[in-house]
Amino acid sequence: MFKIAIPPLGNQFILGLKESSLVAYVSVSDLWGSALSEAAANFKQLETYVVAGLYYLALVMLFTFVVGKLEARFDVNAKAKSREASAKSRARYSSSEETVSL
Length: 102
What we know:
Elements: H1 2-19, H2 31-42, H3 45-73, H4 77-101
Helix pairs in contact: 1-3, 2-3
């Protein structure tokens, strides 16, 4: 059951991370909220926002990589796909033997 839940849970987690910058405008402090207050304090908006954006990019890339690895490890359909592929290759091999022997 956990194997089936990994892709949607991972996607929701990454979406929540991406959308967390919106909560800064509702007065909840997070990375973007900290960047807003820091930019107001030092009058360097561009540099502060670029650094905050790079942090968000790094976090999203990291969690996307981790979720992808979890999906690959717990892939429910991987065994069925490999069995299906091996059955197709055996069928091709046996049919090619029959045509050669005729």
